[in-house]
Write a structure and sequence with these properties.
Layout lengths: L1 E3 L11 E4 L2 E4 L4 H11 L11 H4 L4 H16 L24 H7 L12 H20 L4 E4 L21 H11 L5 E5 L6 H7 L5 E8 L24 E6 L5 H18 L3 E6 L16 H12 L5 E5 L5 H13 L2
Parallel strand pairs: 1-4, 4-9, 5-6, 5-8, 6-7, 8-9
Antiparallel strand pairs: 2-3
């Protein structure tokens, strides 16, 4: 299987995040990529496809914000990483905002997603890796893997959150449509619901979004990913959420996966994009499923049995010591 990774993705390295009322070391570190690369071996560097694919998903003002936020933060006399502290809960709208504090609230929804000096470069390179894997699949590869880091599925069209700044899966889906394919299915199997991806395609009928995740009644992102969210307008019925309780083991996960794969098969997509998070692992420090390393090969085989061209895009997974083995096991199923 072809594997894509850009060394610029290491440049994103915030120091701290606000978690459960305290500032703690940032969990989504470059060490995650080191662990995966050590397990998988050499990766290809993607060619730069420019910003045009990103602009199919993210508006120009949001991209410009990501490029300049850390610089503007420092220009305002601040130390450390740029992070918001106030958010527009109601009547969120486009406003002409000058102060970086206001922009951070305008373009984010949580306090765990700071912008460091290299965040834009890393997020941009992460999307380029996703595009490379997607184009490899479009060119005939049965499956390809993009080590997307930072991840992307919590990021909406014009907001960041959940360690995510650019939505690589959404950009990849739009690239598939732009290449002339009719339908794309997205299977999100991260512990946390991919609220940003869902939001981007909620009104679309040509992109199916299916997510298996921790019940948002108990887990982040709380406000999205409930079973009654099924899409709207042209997208009614094109969203399927399968929330599961804490403590879920592979047997329960496989039952949900069977439902997900049945829906995907019925949709008859041209390409499958799999947002894969290894934070479903029993030893993950911020998650509460009970999936074991050997289980990931089984899950991978079940997905591969659909027989669809599949681009696998990395999302979460924070048990660094086991992360490489968990990713390798999942990819072995393909």
């Amino acid at each position: 299987m072809r594997i894509f990774w850009d060394e610029r993705q290491r440049l994103h390295a915030p120091e701290k995040e606000l978690h459960n009322g305290a500032f703690v070391p940032f969990a989504e570190t470059p060490a995650r990529a080191d662990a995966i690369l050590a397990a998988l071996g050499p990766a290809e560097t993607p060619r730069d496809r420019g910003e045009a694919p990103l602009l199919r998903v993210h508006p120009r003002d949001y991209l410009d914000f990501l490029k300049t936020a850390h610089r503007d933060w420092r220009a305002a006399g601040r130390d450390g990483d740029a992070a918001g502290y106030v958010w527009p809960v109601v009547r969120r709208r486009a406003l002409r905002l000058e102060r970086i504090d206001a922009k951070l609230g305008r373009y984010s929804y949580d306090a765990s997603t700071p912008i460091a000096a290299g965040t834009w470069e890393a997020a941009y390179a992460s999307v380029q890796s996703a595009l490379a894997a997607t184009e490899a699949v479009l060119a005939g590869e049965p499956a390809a893997f993009a080590l997307c880091r930072p991840p992307g599925h919590h990021c909406g069209a014009d907001y960041m959150g959940g360690y995510c700044y650019l939505n690589a899966t959404a950009v990849a889906a739009e690239a598939v449509i732009a290449a002339g394919r009719r339908r794309v299915a997205i299977l999100d199997i991260d512990y946390h619901h991919g609220n940003g991806t869902q939001d981007i395609f909620y009104g679309r009928g040509d992109v199916l979004f299916v997510s298996i995740h921790a019940d948002p009644a108990t887990d982040y992102p709380f406000y999205w990913g409930h079973a009654d969210e099924t899409g709207e307008g042209a997208g009614e019925g094109a969203t399927l959420n399968l929330p599961l309780p804490r403590g879920t083991r592979v047997s329960e996960f496989e039952r949900a996966l069977a439902t997900a794969l049945e829906r995907i098969a019925a949709f008859e997509p041209d390409v499958l994009l799999c947002s894969y998070g290894a934070d479903t692992f029993a030893g993950d420090p911020i998650s509460f499923f009970k999936i074991e390393t050997a289980d990931y090969a089984v899950i991978g085989r079940r997905i591969a049995a659909l027989g669809l061209p599949t681009a696998i895009l990395m999302e979460g997974g924070y048990a660094v010591d086991a992360l490489g083995a968990n990713v390798a096991a999942f990819l072995s199923g393909f």
